[in-house]
Amino acid sequence: MTEADPVIPVPPPTTSAPALRIAGLRKSFGDKIAVENLDLTVPSGSFYGLVGPNGAGKTTTLSMATGLLRPDAGTIEILGTDVWRDTVTAKSLVGVLSDGVALFDRLTGEQLVTYHGLLHGMDRETVAQRTADLLELLDLQEAGGILVVDYSAGMTKKIALASALVHAPRLLVLDEPFESVDPVSAANIRDLLAGYVRGGGTVIVSSHSMDLVQRMCDHVAVIGSGRLLAAGTTDEVRAGSTLEDRFVELVGGRHTTEGPAWLHTS
Ligand SMILES: Nc1ncnc2c1ncn2[C@@H]1O[C@H](COP(=O)(O)OP(=O)(O)OP(=O)(O)O)[C@@H](O)[C@H]1O
To answer: What InterPro entries does this protein's entry cite (predicted)?
Structure first.
């Protein structure tokens, strides 16, 4: 699949508001401050990367941004709709692939995608057509009749992505979409997402692959310890070096030793 048109037409914009606007976002778990005073604006039509070290607050931020986790403070708007005041409208605008949220895995892959489509109020015929398209695009045709509980990690990721896409959302929020996915499927997913953005959609993707984010995303935000460290176009943020080098510079934490002596066999 190359230079593909968007598989699913993205509804035309009805607002000039950014795809996502976050202001003053905070979240603590007990004494642990996971997200601290975070401001972030994701322009409509962008392919936005969110990067940060383990425990930086990416999943917490994306969960709050998509109506899955209530913030302690701050506002979040998706295309001008306040996520926590008008959650139903906001959720209709967004497709979410979450890290670690359980799927209804006693359904087959086909049933799971169909369920998500029906949940969004789509008619059965459209849901069936789109489900078939998505299963084909994600190389899951043969697995469509198998229970999701029996899927591999990569297949589970792909069926969750299909479920997030079936209602043709205006904004797609993907937490670690390429984790466990084989290189061919990853390339197919990248083409699918690029086509989706060309068709007017917005993608936010969190990833630990700096190389992938640098190649794929036109904007990037770096977060560390729950705070925004840098944000802008990918070229602005990497400022002449590679995103990986810039990331290490911003985040720190590189160890200069080769580990304890007992790890060295000779
Ligand atoms: N439900 C929770 N209860 C307690 N602490 C939590 C909870 N969820 C997240 N945290 C803490 O909040 C911080 C941010 O976690 P988060 O999962 O958002 O990081 P992340 O950037 O997605 O990390 P990773 O790249 O490792 O997935 C971490 O210190 C984590 O331990």
So the answer is: AAA+_ATPase, ABC_transporter-like_ATP-bd, ABC_transporter_ATP-binding, P-loop_NTPase
Q: Which amino acid is at 110?
A: E
- Tokens 């997402």 belong to 193
Q: Looking at this protein, which amino acid is placed at residue 98?
A: S
**Across-strand partners of 21?**
41, 77
- Locate the domains of the chain by residue range: 20-103+170-251
Dihedral sign of CA atoms 64, 67, 72, 74 in order: positive
Give the pair of three-digit tokens for residue 175.
Answer: 């937490």
Q: Which of 133-142, 155-164, 174-183, 213-222 has the lowest mean pLDDT?
A: 174-183
Q: Which of ligand 1's atoms lies nearest the C-alpha of 226? A: 14
Ligand 1 atom at shortest distance from the alpha carbon of 53: 25
Q: What separation in Å is there between the alpha carbon of 103 and the centre of ligand 1?
A: 20
Pick the atom of ligand 1 nearest to 57's CA: 18
In this prediction the ipTM stands at 0.98
Pocket perturbation via mutation, ligand 1, pick of 22, 25, 32 by most ligand atoms within 8 A of CB: 32
Our answer on whether the CB atom of 54 is closer than 6 Å to any ligand 1 atom is: yes
How far is the C-alpha of 103 from the C-alpha of 126, rounded, in Å? 22
Q: Rounded to two decimals, what is the model's pTM?
A: 0.90
